[in-house]
Description:
- The protein has 171 residues and is α+β, with helices and mostly antiparallel strands.
- Helices cover 15% and strands 27% of the residues.
- The chain is elongated and about 85 Å long.
Amino acid sequence: MRLHAALATVALLGLGGAIAPSHAEEAAPAISVESPAALADPALPRFEPQADTALAAPDSNAVTDIDDGDGITWQPIAGGMASWYGARFAGHRTASGERFDPSDLTAAHRTLPFGTRVRVTDAQGDSVIVRINDRGPFAHGRVIDLSQAAAKELGLTRSGSGKVRLAVLDR
């Protein structure tokens, strides 16, 4: 019997205001709420929708798309140091799920979507086109990790790294 009384008490306490008389709302003091515009403080951050950059006026100093003469347009995206990885990772799964093959022209990039074609150009102007199939590089100061075959095409296998420019195939 005590258990039933205890459960009934807990149930009534748990319901709280759900069984309170309707005049409780009428007895509550009125609270005035200021409009959001009145609360705007220029020092506080505010939400602004992202601008559509496709509609923005072109910057006269910006690097524009590059047409390499074959009718293929490349969008320059970055520059920095590239490194490479090879036989030690052969057969391991990449972040995209495929098996790594050092003889394929592939690369790892932190943010580009898998399957993106990237032209990697070294300081001498030599370039290679790679497909992004992995995430990385994880070494500080690197912008892309190339497969051994791609690094060989650019002559980076001996030095291990080199300064490059990246451009994405504009689809």
